[in-house]
Design a protein that fits this description.
By secondary structure, this protein is mainly alpha-helical. The protein has six helices and two strands, in the order E-H-H-H-E-H-H-H.
């Protein structure tokens, strides 16, 4: 059964923007540690939203300062968490590839995450969420 709750899409947008910006910065500056940072933030935020650093930036700084307005909708956060965990896993794989000097594979994996985050940011289409729905329908993922 889906768990539909009040969900602030602006927090999601800030999260996506931070993932995109930091990963592009990592590539431009050739700083794989930034990829590792993004991976850690994404995976930690998947486990517990209190550790979602980019969303906390929105909640504690950007929203109170009025720099980003809230956009609260009714939505199920589970597919978004799945998508973030999947993206974080790809970023972790990117980090490992870069550490092993498999730069082409490492940067390709991080570029994939940037591309999918951009699609969600710009067009409100979450590929990871769609994958979640397909896997749920196929019985691969069971909902509690």
């Amino acid at each position: 059964m889906a768990s539909v709750v009040h969900f602030d899409r602006s927090a999601l947008k800030v999260n996506q923007a931070a993932i995109i910006a930091l990963t592009i910065l990592a590539f431009v500056l050739q700083q794989p540690w930034l990829v590792a940072l993004v991976a850690a933030v994404m995976l930690a935020g998947t486990i517990d939203s209190r550790f979602a650093l980019f969303q906390q930036l929105y909640l504690r700084v950007l929203k109170p300062a009025g720099l980003v307005k809230p956009r609260v909708v009714m939505d199920d956060p589970t597919p978004h968490r799945f998508a973030q965990g999947l993206g974080g896993s790809f970023m972790a794989a990117s980090t490992i590839a870069l550490a092993l000097h498999a730069d082409a594979a490492g940067w390709a994996l991080s570029a994939l995450v940037v591309a999918l985050a951009f699609v969600n940011f710009a067009f409100d289409f979450c590929v990871g969420c769609q994958l979640f729905f397909l896997l749920t329908r196929a019985g691969v993922i069971r909902r509690a």
